[in-house]
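Chapter review. Work through the record for CBS domain-containing protein before attempting the end-of-chapter questions.
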Amino acid sequence: MHPDLENKPRRRASSLQGREFWYKDITLIPNRLPDFERDEVDLTTNFTKRTVLKTPFVSSPMDTVTEAEMAILMALMGGIGVIHYNFTTINEQIEEVEKVKRFQAGFVFNPVVLSPQNTIKDVYNINEKYGFFSTPITEDGTLNSKLVGIVTRRDVRYRKDMDTRLKDVMTPREKLIMAKKLETVDKNDLNFANEILRKHNLDTLPIIDENDKVVALVTDSDIKKNEQFPLATKNENKQLRVFIAVESRLNLAQERIAKAILAGIDGIVIDASVVFKEQLEIAKWVKENFPNLEVVSGNVDSAEMVKKIIEGGFEYCDAIKVGMGPGAACIT
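Structure tokens for CBS domain-containing protein:
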């Protein structure tokens, strides 16, 4: 016990009921030497039923707190970010999700592609929006046509002529090293693709199907990120995990959720200061339409509220947000 407290009478637990405590009112005093090293501490815990965090930190779904940059950093460090929904349009929120999903991945599915008629300026626009240069070039600038080349940062980094057509700077199809879908994606064999990258010192490896169409990319930057951030919160395809906040009204949340699914979102947090019945209706609708999408409900501040959620929709909820307290602008 702290020396200042040794001679003071101890209060019964019942006498503390109903009192408020601030951080400064409580001091935790270590009373023994730990018998383990700090690097032996394992903080791994479940955020939801299926999402596991190696660093148990989750960003708030509140207005303006988390966008792509913070969500990326949270996931790299072993936590997870929840992107708020206070954008002018739903598509703006979805673009933030796409930035997170494209930051780090094993196989980059549905890659951004351009046509030979696009310009160097278009490649720089992609870098500004998503943070990368490597772009496959297809016959008509869509994934439905054959691969004809690729543009990487090496091709454009010293170019000042932004209006030059990509057909004049790209590495053409006949000079590309590629991998087959049958040997990589179909077998979920990322190591095979990584070996090709290392062997040929490539920035980007296109994965093509039997019709010479691009189905995915593998990049060397993702190999480096995997080594640099061993605690990162990732899905089965090595993409960073990210959740989004959605409205607490079903008719408002449906369009947002449907678009987020296409972007590869991992879960939603129903954003409300206090949980109420319609949240369970949203959770039920999600599980009936997108059973793999995880749902976080809340907030709750009592065992009775948790009990009601368990009784009314436990099979639809993957986690419950607990806690209400004073904030700078309100009490939530």
